[in-house]
Structure prediction request, 336 residues.
Amino acid sequence: MAKASKAKNTYPGSTTWDRVKPAPIVLILGTEGLFQDRAWERVRDQVRKSASSIEIETVDGTTYTAGQLHTLASPSLFAEPKLIKIENAGVADHSLFKDLEQYLHNPAEDVTIAIIVGSGQRGKNTWKLIGNAKFPVVHCDAVKSDEARMNLVVADLKRHKRSIAPAAAAALVRALGEDLRGLAAATDQLLSDTTGEITEAVVKQYYQGRVETTGFDVADAVVAGQMGKALVSLRHAQESGINPVVIVAALATKFRQIALAKLVDANTHSAQELGFNPWALKFIRPQLRYWNDHALAGAILAVAQADAEVKGAAKDPMHAVEKCVISCCRYRAGSL
Prediction:
C-alpha cells in the first residue's frame, strides 16, 4: 500500500487513509482516488471484522433524494450493523446536506456512514460541521510530483518488507505516469511475481512498452557523464514529442539538486532546512564527487543559456539543448 501523506490539522479528527477507524460518520475529503479507495476499504474491512455479517448500501450523491439517508439508516429486519457509502457527495443536491446535518444530532446505532466528497465543491458548510463534531476526516490530497509517486512505491513495498532500487522506482513511475491506481496495481503485480529487491531490469521486463524517454532520462545521463546515452535519450525524447523546454527544466532541477546536496554534505545546511527530500539526496549523492565547483558553475550557466534559447532566443531549440548536453558532459569530464 502506498504511504499516506501526513494528516492535516484542519479538524480534531483529521487522519489519513491508513489510520482511519470506523465511526458513525467518516468524512473522506480530497480528490486522490487511490486514497479514497483505501480509506473506504479500511473502514469496510474493520466494520466486517467487528460483526459476523453487515449490510452495505451505496448511494450516489448525484441521484440522492430527500429522506433517503433516514430510510437507509433505519434498523434492518435482522438488526445487522449497516455500512452506508455515499459517493460523489460534493455534487449532491442540497437535500443530502440537510439530511446529514439533521442526522449529526442523533446518529443511529450500529450504522457507519462513509462520505466520499470527490471533486465537487458543494456541501462545504456540512463538511465543516462534521469535522468540528470530531468525526474522522480523511484527507486524500492529489499526488502531483514524480518524487512523491516514487515515495509511494517505496512505502508500498516497505509495508511488505520489500525494497526497490531508486532507478527502478523512477522507471515504474515513468511507465505509469500520473495514474496512481495503475501505479499501485503495478506495484502489487511486482510484489506477487518477484522476490528480493526490485531492479530497473525487472521493471523494464514488465513495462518496457510503457517506459518512455523523458527529460529526466536525459538529465540523469548528463549528471552521470554519459554523453552518448544522453544524446540518444535526447533524440528519443524529440521523437516522442517532448518539448525542449521540459528537457531543460529537468536539467535545471538536477543541477539544483547537486548544488543543494553539496550544501548538505558540507554541513552548512540540513536537508530539512533546504526542503531537500532524503530520497532525492540519496539518489544524487553518488554523483557529487564528479561535480567540483567549476564544473557545476559551468553546467548551470550552460543550462541557463539553453533555457533562454529554447524560449525564443534560438531558431533550433533542440539543437540548443544538444549543445547544452555536450557542454555539461564536458564540464563533468574536466575538458572545459
